Amino acid sequence: KFKETMKEQRKKIKLLEYLTASSNFMNVTDILTLQTILVGDSGVGKTSLLVQFDQGKFIPGSFSATVGIGFTNKVVTVDNINVKLQIWDTAGQERFRSVTHAYYRDAQALLLLYDITSKSSFDNTRAWLTEIHEYAQNDVVIMLLGNKSDMISSRMVRRDEGERLAREYGVPFMETSAKTGVNVDLVFKAVAKELKHRAAQLPNEPKFHIHEFIQTQKKESSCCSFL
């Protein structure tokens, strides 16, 4: 069973905050596990995005279409707390959809990818979103990602089209490049931070806004690039 109750997660986070505050437990990890699933048409770059995040590299032409489902674990730091992301890479082909649907129910975050050089993959995001709303939990975190942003000359989907679709469904949006690594770390950092805040938030604490966090991080990154 992957999905923990919000109460169980809150207890774990409070424990982790206590332990990491102690000099004797500065290396404590793997107390909170958050499940994230990558979905989208076959060929949009889900596996490459995962490898870029996990290993920090791009391996051109090395991946055949994912068959069924696979996953990897990676520990990330959120507000000085180590959190384990369990990331599932799903097959985009129609014949594997029933397998993918079974994993939606336990997902705490879903990253929906399309390929900016493929209009059909973008058009199909509406069907993916319909499936997500049908099979996933009501409070699942959804993020729309336009992948392969490095392929400017082959672009078939404008950035503003992705932004407009994201606004329509009320979800965060970013363009990413599994090849160059642009925004890849930010995607998973934003998701981990959102999920951690949801699990730990007390009634009177201010709410974390993932849209604002993404914009702030982008601005800080732009400022640093000129230093």
What order do the helices and strands come in, and which of them pair?
Blueprint: H1 6-20, E1 33-40, H2 46-55, E2 69-78, E3 81-90, H3 97-104, E4 109-115, H4 119-123, H5 125-135, E5 141-147, H6 159-169, E6 173-175, H7 184-200, H8 210-225
Parallel strand pairs: 1-3, 1-4, 4-5, 5-6
Antiparallel strand pairs: 2-3
What does this protein structure show overall?
It contains eight helices and six strands. The protein has a six-stranded mixed beta sheet with strand order 2-3-1-4-5-6, sandwiched between helices. Helix 1 crosses helix 7 and helix 7 (about 185-200) packs antiparallel against helix 8. With about 230 residues, the protein is α/β, with parallel strands linked by helices. The N and C termini lie far apart (about 45 Å). It has a single domain, classed as Rossmann fold (3-Layer(aba) Sandwich). Residues about 20-30 have low confidence and may be disordered. The longest helix has 17 residues, at about 185-200. About 40% of the residues lie in helices and about 20% in strands.
Descriptive labels:
227 residues, alpha/beta, Rossmann fold, six-stranded mixed β-sheet
Unreliable stretches:
22-30
Structural domains: how many: 1
Global mean pLDDT: 80
Distance between the termini: 47 Å
CATH topology (level 3) name: Rossmann fold
Shape, principal axes of CA atoms: globular
Order of helix and strand elements from N to C terminus: HEHEEHEHHEHEHH
CATH architecture: 3-Layer(aba) Sandwich
Strand % is: 15-25%
Query: Helix/strand/pairing class, anyone?
Result: alpha/beta
Largest sheet: 6 strands, mixed
Strand order of the largest sheet: 2-3-1-4-5-6
Q: Please tally the β strands and state the result.
A: 6
Structure annotation, total helices: 8
Q: Helix content range of the residues, please?
A: 40-55%
Rg: 18 Å
Q: CATH class, please?
A: Alpha Beta
CATH homology-level superfamily: P-loop containing nucleotide triphosphate hydrolases
